[in-house]
Amino acid sequence: MHHKKVLACVASSLCLCSAQVQAWGAVGHELVGSIAEQLLAGTPAAEKVHKIIGMDLSQAAVWADCAKGVNPVNGEFVYYSSPRFKECRQFESDEGKARMIDYVRRNWDACQPTASEEACHKQYHYADVAIQQPKYAAGLAGTSDHDIVAAINAATLVLEGKPAPAPFSIVDQREAILMLAHYLGDIHEPMHIGSVYLDNEGKEINPSREQLDPTTGTKGGNDIDFHGPSLHYVWDDVAKDIDPQHPDPAWVAEAKAIKPSAGNVLTWSTQWADDSLLQAKKAFDGVSFSHVAVHSHPWSANYPDNYVEMKAAIQHEQLVKAGAHLAQLLAAVVK
Ligand SMILES: [Zn+2]
Q1: 3, 88, 190, 262: least surrounded by Cβ within 10 Å?
Q2: Can you name the CATH fold of 25-61+120-333?
Q3: ∠ CA 290-296-300 to the nearest 5 degrees?
Q4: Is the pLDDT of residue 11 over 70?
Q5: pLDDT tens, 292-328?
Q6: pLDDT of 33 strictly over 70
């Protein structure tokens, strides 16, 4: 889930509504993991990865969202299991729950979230770069030293045997791979990188970080209606006919044909964010906004014809890239 939708429930004793929307949905994340598995099959990196995490990448890909089920209750971190999230059951042994609780405790507030921001580990899943920007760059509004670009680099550093930079706390290579298996999916989801900031008339603005008025943000599309669900949800939601355990061979072939990203591995997350930002521009192309609340979203919007078809085509492209890039990153750093 993206951003602040859990605010309404923090006052209740158990945060039952956390992790309501899983980014890409579990299916999208599992598919990314499955594609990466097929690309890595038979390589030393695959063997090493499986030894470190004790599961395959498709299973690992949902862990960071499942960990959002951990929240403080009367000063103690507690994992609440939602029966709706079947994909999280694999992590709900006593040991599995203890690991999620430990991760969330260590990654809760070291980033010093402001009143309008969520816990640190939840912020690791996205950035909110204004779509007018040509590229992702540190220092822009909607970026931080603990956004998704930084999170991927922090986990990569741990796999290279170096310490994770603050505010990240990554306890071992296992945790680093679990994080990457998820974030590689998220960074390719256009709504996790590009965002619109809107003035009161619904006109798109391009704020600097210093002049950012939080009320102009749209939370990666979570605040924008799409005929009932949020625009963010619609982009996370993948085609119903996708079987994440058996990726379409044509998609796997497309992933195999994707060239490894260029340069040092620590520049890759920025390159992927740049690309997702371009996709986000397409996702907002021709969309107009008005500050009329609808279906509990503060913004309503008009969409061009064929929006759903355009979305499906971009999702296909991005899921394939995510699988390829996850395989390439692990092959490069798991030695
Ligand atoms: Zn996520």
Answers
A1: 262
A2: P1 Nuclease (1.10.575)
A3: 20
A4: no
A5: 999 999 999 999 999 999 999 999 999 999 999 999 9
A6: yes
144 and 179 Cβ atoms separated by less than 8 Å = no
Contacts of 146 (CB under 8 A, 6+ apart): 111, 120, 123, 124, 167, 168
Q: How far is the CA of 1 from the centre of ligand 1 (A)?
A: 6
Q: Where are the domains of the chain?
A: 25-61+120-333
Token pair of 213 as six digits: 């008025």
Rounded distance from Cα 182 to ligand 1 centre (Å): 6
Centroid of ligand 1 to alpha carbon of 32 (angstroms):
13
* Per-residue model confidence as pLDDT tens digits over 285-300: 999 999 999 999 999 9
Q: How far is the CA of 279 from the centre of ligand 1 (A)?
A: 18
The token pair that represents 299 in the structure block? 């913004």
What dihedral do alpha carbons 31, 33, 39, 44 form, nearest 10°?
-160
On the question of pLDDT at 83 being above 50, the answer is yes
Write down the pLDDT at residue 7: 38
Report CA(236)–ligand 1 centroid distance (Å).
10
